[in-house]
Amino acid sequence: MKQQGHLDSMNALAYSPDGQRIITAADDGKVKVWDTSSGFCIVTFTEHTSGVTDCHFSKRGNVLFTSSLDGSVRAWDMIRYRNFRTFTAPSRLGFSCLAVDPSGEVVCAGSIDSFDIHVWSVQTGQLLDRLSGHEAPVVSMAFAPDGSHLVSGSWDKTVRVWSIFGRTQTSEPLQLKSDVLSVDFRPDGKQIVASSLDGQLSFWSVSEATQQSLIEGRRDVSGGRKITDRRTAANAEGTKSFNHVTYSADGSCVLAAGNSKYICLYDVTTGSLIKKFQVSVNTSLDGTQEYLNSKDMTEAGPRGLIDETGEASDKEERYDRTLPGAKRGDAGARKTRPEVRVASVAFSPTGRSFCAATTEGLLIYSLDNEFVFDPFDLDITITPDTILDTLQAAKAASVST
């Protein structure tokens, strides 16, 4: 059965508080609502005019907030499925991340154009405050579960903890060794995890503003080399950091993922790697191969990027190098090699499953083996009539026994 997905790569996802819905946001400007039990897309929001960068639910789950590069943060009514409020800055900015106060009263957004954090009132739509202090783009934010603190991570190598209602920073900036890529609050609000460009996950105490532990994740996450790399995956630098990190529902584990084919699950207290999930084994994706094959490397560059049949006049001598996939226009004419990566991961509120936004699509990993409708073995002989006949026959057999 054909099901419309995103036309472009997904950037962010969020579980609804009841765990029944997953929201995905992508570069094509669409926000989609998926049903976790059936796997079908229920609603598509198309109001954004540029790539959607982040999405978050309010605590009750009746309002969804999304931020976009078109310069707006939008609030969506998840009961009537409509956009009821739009938040904008005085000057045109592209918003890269957002965070929502658990009470649903305040929404904050960070930008790659301005280094300030913008704070709006959800009730009135008015810009309440601009928190200044970061010296580089703000790329990740999270609210404490009790709403008392906001944490923000930036490319200026600092993590800052703010008191939104006091309009102050609660401590000196937490200094890291490299650019911050993602931050998250532990569900009890007492600890922060920060992922940095050097592949480290650092854990900080909120009350003491001190570092508690460190996980060196470069070796765990690195996997897959690009077609242009002249080195194997173990030595390639592009995959050795976590773009997104999140706590489990009980705060005992963290889930981290980046530009590689691996998702890593760590234990917080011991810092040990519990499990490594491989997203894809699809070799037509760039970044799946681990090792460099010297026969594919020519003087002119990697063989995969060279059209060796360009001089051939006969159509039979030309290779069909089109890859499976879809794009705008002709659905079969995708010639680029998308790089395998995981843009975002999220734990379900129950803690029984987690989902990942990847180049392979939206993947859901679950501890519960519930039946999901998967139309894999459908063929031309399966029609509504044959299904009804089979049900009748089964019913008759059960009655006779």
Low-confidence stretches: 326-334
Q: What's the total number of strands?
A: 30
Distance between the termini: 36 Å
Instruction: Tell me the major beta sheet.
Output: 5 strands, antiparallel
Class per helix and strand makeup: mainly beta
Backbone CA Rg: 23 Å
Nutshell version of this structure?
This protein has 401 residues and is mainly beta. The protein is 5% helix and 40% strand.
Q: Please, could you describe this protein's structure?
A:
With 401 residues, the chain is mainly beta. It has helices at residues 218-221, 384-400; strands at 10-15, 21-26, 31-35, 41-45, 52-57, 63-68, 72-77, 82-88, 95-100, 106-111, 117-121, 127-131, 138-143, 150-154, 158-163, 168-169, 174-175, 180-185, 191-196, 200-205, 211-216, 242-247, 253-258, 262-267, 273-278, 297-298, 301-302, 342-347, 353-358, 361-366. The strands form eight sheets. Strands 13, 14, 15, 16 and 17 form a five-stranded antiparallel sheet that branches. A four-stranded antiparallel sheet has the order 1-2-3-4, with no helix packed on it. The longest helix has 17 residues, at 384-400. The model is unreliable at 326-334 (pLDDT under 50).
